[in-house]
Amino acid sequence: MEPVVELNNVSKSFKGFTLKDFSLTVRKGFVHGFIGGNGVGKSTTIKLIMNLLEPDRGEVSVFGLSYKDHEKEIKQRIGFVYDEFVFYEHLSLAEMKDIVKRAYKTWDDDLFYEYVNTFQLPLKKPMKTFSKGMMMKASLTIALSHHAELIIMDEPTSGLDPIFRRELLEVLRSLMEDGGKTIFFSTHITTDLDSIADYITFIHNGEHIFTKDLFEMNEDYALVKGELELLDEETEQEFIGIQRNSFGFVALTDHKERVEDVFGDTVLIEEPSLEDIMFYTKKGAADYVQLNS
What pLDDT digit, counting tens, does each position of 198-218 carry? Predict the structure, then answer.
């Protein structure tokens, strides 16, 4: 599988935060989800991929090319959908299109108007009058109208209503049908990825926790529920993170078959959501820090 984005041992430090020896491979033709809480390094990673930040250490390549020698070529092939307002708010979408199209050799007016009609966007109104949902549709329309091969989306569904979030996911599914495009989808709303992602990378506090394909995650991970007396120093080693309450415990494992052998029918085993995996992995990391501080 051809790599589209590669980060090799990349580090970037700011006051109070460091992205630490981060490595990532995004492969052509797939939807790659990038999950983690707020402030853990998702936007920093995207800025490094977009060459909006330079790494302190490590290497970044996109389409097998380095930004040092091929920045214009790389950016011609990327469409970027951002969570914040990035347009001239006093302009209309038609006026914004006339500005942006000059930057792309492959700009396609017919494709632009196709998405305008699909999203029912007004062409003549000032963009400052757009709702957040309309602004996201406009951003996606512009990102897609130059036949971008890599679509990078930074928290695209944050603050949007469930109806538009579902519409957006349907658009993304249709984009992936020809196999020629790649989507890198950063979000803390993990339910948006449950039905569309092929691969998931989890980042926490600037560190790469894992990259797995979604099928592999469904096979390996499990939520385990049982009574507190089942836990001891040995059995707790089977879990990534544990939450105790007055009714018993809920824990996450990434070795489902082993837990089934250890506990048998004394526990209830369920399939976790991506949100569960994030929560219990972070909880396990916090408990480790607390025990070792």
Answer: 999 999 899 999 999 988 888
